[in-house]
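TICKET #2291
ISSUE: user wants both folds in one file
ATTACHMENT 1:
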Amino acid sequence: MFKAVLEDVGLIKESFNAIAEIVDEGIFNIKKDGISLICPDRAVIAVVDFLILPTAFESYTCDKELEIGLNILKILQFIKKSKPEDKLTLAVDENEDRFELTLDGSTTRKFAMPIISVAKQEMQDISRFNFENSIELDPSVLKEGLENCALISDGIAIMISKESLVLKAEGDSSFTQIKIEADNPQLYSLTCKEDTVARYSIEYLTKMLKAGKLTDKVKLEFNKDYPVHLEYMIKDKVKLGFILAPRIEE
C-alpha cells in the first residue's frame, strides 16, 4: 500500500513545472525513504534527478517498494488546478493498476490515471561526476543572464573565477554579459579551483529554471567541457537536480 498526504502542494507543482519541460513521462520509484525519478530526455542531452522525502508529507505510508511509469504532463495539468488551501493525496491502486491524485480543500477533486509502461534507458551513475567549480545564487540572477544571452545566441558561456561569475554570449559582431562579483548578496557561495569557462544550451537551462519558485537558491556545479549540475534543494523536503551536457568548441 502507498498513500501520502502533502500539505505544501507547491513542492510538487513547482518541481514538475521544470521536469515536464525536459521529460513527459518517467519511471517513479516509491520507497519508504521517498519518491524519486531519474530520467534522461529523449535526446539524452539532459537528465532529471528528483527526490521528495517522507518528511515533506503530512503523512506517508509505503509498505513495499513500487516502480511505476507515469505521464508527467498529465500529473502537472491536474496539480495546476490546486488552490492555496488544498492538500494533495497521492495513492496507488494496485488492483486497478492506477495512480490516484486527490485535491482536498473546499471541494474534493480526484484524478486517476493509468500506470504506463516506460522504456528504461541506460544511464551513467550521476554520483560519478566530480565538479571543481560551484556557485549558489538567486535564480532570478541566472534567469536575467539567460534572457539577455538569448538575444545574442542559443548558447551561454559561464565564466568563473575566485572574484566573480560572468554569464556571456557572443554573436558575429555583438556580445552581452552580466557580471556578479563574489561579494554580491545574491551570490551566496562561490568555489573555484581555477578560472574556468564552460558553455551550455540556453534553451535547456531556461527550461530547468522553471522551478525557480521552488526556493530562493539554485546551485550550479561545472568544469570546462563537462556537464553542468543544476540543483534546487529544500532541506528535509525535496531535491530537484538536472545534468546537462556541455557545448564543446571545436
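ATTACHMENT 2:
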Amino acid sequence: MTQILITLLPYLTVAANLLLVLGILLGVSQSVRRLRKHSGARATALEAENMRLAVVIGELQARIQKLEEVETAPVQAVAAGGTSPNGVLRTKVLKMHRLGQASGRIADKLRVPKGEVDLMVKVHQMATQAQEEAAATAAEKG
C-alpha cells in the first residue's frame, strides 16, 4: 500500500495543484466580471456627465457670443431718450476697465483711439478721487 501511495504521490500533487489553479482562475474571472460591470456603469455615468458639460459649454459660448455682440456694437448707436454718444462711450469704457480689460483691447473693441480710452479712465479716476476727498473733508467738518 505504501508503495502505491508513493507511486501516486506525484499525480496527487499535480491534481491538487490543478484544483488550486482552477480555484484561483475562477476567482479572478469573477473579479474581472465585477470590474467590467462597474466600469461599464462608470463609463455610462461619465458619458452622461460629458453630455451635460457639452450642453453647458454650448450655452456659455452662446452667452459669450451675445455679450461680445453687445460689447462691439457700434458706439454711434445711441439709445433713444437723449443719451449722448460720449456718455454711452464713457460708460462702456469704464465698465470694460472695471472688468479688468486693458485699454488697448477696449480701444479695439469700441473702435476708438487708445489715447481716448486712457484719457476717459484717467478723468474718471481724478473725478472719483476729488469726490472722495470732498466727502472726507465734509466728514471732518461735520
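RESOLUTION: both attachments delivered.
EXTRA DETAIL ON ATTACHMENT 2: The first helix runs from residue 2 to 71.
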